[in-house]
């Protein structure tokens, strides 16, 4: 058991493990610690976020609160499928890019919401099914996650795929009808496209131990056991006038599977209990060391999709409500995320072999290995290229595809041909590799690529 050390106030905290590689964010505590949501959360190694409609960023009263109180944002609508790919293969990132710029300029991390959701599908996708839809959705995940690569702390890769009621099973949708493996296919594609982002499954009515949350729990446990890349589970927490007594226990059982948990869309029905419920949710998150942050679904009551529920922390004039004080107090009273000190030597000398040894450490030239994510009628191939002892100034990887297979889309390499023998050359930024250095590229295709093996040539 490694020693753990609790973060202290008044330091700059690089939250290792809690934040994605490539997006490691310095959470700087300041004179504001204890007096704003963002500073108090940061002091405890966490984020406090809000869903943002980018159209409101030009409203001074809105942006003043956003920048003062929140250090994480998520697009309320602008990164959804209908917004980012309104016509098939034609992508639009205006709103999402604007939000990312605002976040970067104001020391905020970004949650990405949502790569795949049965709602807010563009019309063209609503009319698709089967392998055509499977291909289109994997392409969507790949393109959007690639566009935002390195800028997203955590992606809701799949949103709301489980049914309400007591079944604990999947919700019917055209996505689900492409085959039960659609969720894992999406997670694998997202990992290839943005290896630095935490990949989350996100849902509602999961605010306690119930049939729906247990169905999701079983899926996450299965994914972890089979190596499907999932890092976090989002609990939307659109709440009414009471909170399940096992809210925290539910978060903890997911955390115990080895994933982070996040409260992703918090809002609470107005009324006498609102402040208490906000406080209790915040305390629950603080008490679960893998609960890395909380997002409210909007800023002021009048910004909320819940209209007259007055469900948020600020009233329509921007005044702090009792619920705000309850959250702030809970953030200030809660423990910090324990972190492993980076400098302590390990207690026991490591006995296990490295978990990810290079597949074929070549002495000259280069080596390539492929991992396939396949479904009926299609596949995504993730290819690792490892330079030999002389390094490379360029590389070229060849595959001979089985008959019927065809490459439809490539990233981080340039393809020659699409059927039979297909060759992939480096692009300008990943050709030059030092000895033993690894780079990755990928391609998507139709048909089956089962059994293919790559050959690598270096120049
Ligand atoms: O932008 C168009 C506008 O051009 C058009 O005239 C108008 C006519 O209906 O619609 C506008 O789009 C609306 C969009 O919000 C932006 O305001 C959509 O109709 C409307 O459906 C959409 O609602 C969003 C809803 O997701 C979509 O299902 C809400 O703002 C958003 O808060 C809500 O967020 C969801 C999360 O993504 C997932 N979890 C539940 C949560 C609440 O429903």
TrEMBL record:
Alphabetically, the GO molecular function entries are: endo-1,4-beta-xylanase activity; polysaccharide binding
Using the record, list the residue span of the signal peptide; answer none if the entry has no such feature. Answer: 1-33
- Ranges for domain GH10 come to 31-330
Which residue windows does the record flag with biased composition (Pro residues)? 338-361
Question: Would the keyword Coiled coil be found if you checked this record's keyword annotation?
Answer: no
GO terms for biological process?
xylan catabolic process
Residue ranges for the region (Disordered) are 334-363
- Assigned EC number: 3.2.1.8
Which superkingdom?
Bacteria
Write down the SUPFAM superfamilies for this protein, in alphabetical order: (Trans)glycosidases, Carbohydrate-binding domain
Q: Which PROSITE patterns match?
A: CBM2 (PS51173), GH10_1 (PS00591), GH10_2 (PS51760)
Q: Which UniProt keywords apply?
A: Carbohydrate metabolism, Glycosidase, Hydrolase, Polysaccharide degradation, Signal, Xylan degradation
The positions flagged as active site in the entry are 265
Show the catalytic activity: Endohydrolysis of (1->4)-beta-D-xylosidic linkages in xylans
Q: Which family does it belong to?
A: Belongs to the glycosyl hydrolase 10 (cellulase F) family.
| The name this protein goes by in its record | Beta-xylanase
Organism of provenance: Micromonospora ureilytica
């Amino acid at each position: 058991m490694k020693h753990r050390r609790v973060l202290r106030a008044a330091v700059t905290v690089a939250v290792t493990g809690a934040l994605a590689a490539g997006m490691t964010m310095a959470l700087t505590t300041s004179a504001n610690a204890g007096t704003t949501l963002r500073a108090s959360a940061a002091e405890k190694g966490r984020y406090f976020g809000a869903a943002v409609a980018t159209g409101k960023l030009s409203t001074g009263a809105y942006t003043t609160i956003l920048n003062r109180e929140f250090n994480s944002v998520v697009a309320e609508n602008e990164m959804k499928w209908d917004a980012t790919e309104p016509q098939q293969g034609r992508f639009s990132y205006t709103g999402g890019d604007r939000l990312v710029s605002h976040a970067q300029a104001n020391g905020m991390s970004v949650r990405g919401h949502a790569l795949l959701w049965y709602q807010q599908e563009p019309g063209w996708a609503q009319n698709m099914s089967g392998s055509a839809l499977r291909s289109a959705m994997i392409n969507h995940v790949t393109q959007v996650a690639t566009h935002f690569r390195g800028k997203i702390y955590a992606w809701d890769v799949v949103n709301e795929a489980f049914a309400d009621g007591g079944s604990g099973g999947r919700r019917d949708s055209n996505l689900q009808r492409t085959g039960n493996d659609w969720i894992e296919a999406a997670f694998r594609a997202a990992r290839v496209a943005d290896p630095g982002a935490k990949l989350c499954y996100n849902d509602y009515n999961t605010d306690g131990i119930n049939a729906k949350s247990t169905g999701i729990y079983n899926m996450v446990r299965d994914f972890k056991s089979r190596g499907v890349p999932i890092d976090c589970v989002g609990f939307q927490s659109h709440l009414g006038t009471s909170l399940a007594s096992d809210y925290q226990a539910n978060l903890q059982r997911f955390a115990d599977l080895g994933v982070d948990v996040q409260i992703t869309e918090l809002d609470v029905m107005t009324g006498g209990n609102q402040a208490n419920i906000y406080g209790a949710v915040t305390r629950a998150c603080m008490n679960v060391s893998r609960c890395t942050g909380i997002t409210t679904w909007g800023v002021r009551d009048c910004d909320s999709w819940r209209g007259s529920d007055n469900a948020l922390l600020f009233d329509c004039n921007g005044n702090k409500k009792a619920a705000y004080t309850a959250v702030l107090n809970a953030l200030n009273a809660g423990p910090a995320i324990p972190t492993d000190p980076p400098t302590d030597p390990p207690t026991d000398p490591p006995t296990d072999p490295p978990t990810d040894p290079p597949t074929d450490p070549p002495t000259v030239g280069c080596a390539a290995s492929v991992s396939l994510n396949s479904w009926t009628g299609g596949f995504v191939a993730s290819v690792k290229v490892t330079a030999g002892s002389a390094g490379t100034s360029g590389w070229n990887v060849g595959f001979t595809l089985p008959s019927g297979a065809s490459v439809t889309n490539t990233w981080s390499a340039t393809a020659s041909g699409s059927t039979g023998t297909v060759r992939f050359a480096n692009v300008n930024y990943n050709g030059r590799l030092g000895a033993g250095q690894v780079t990755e590229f990928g391609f998507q295709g139709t048909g089956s690529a089962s059994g293919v093996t790559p050959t690598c040539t270096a120049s």
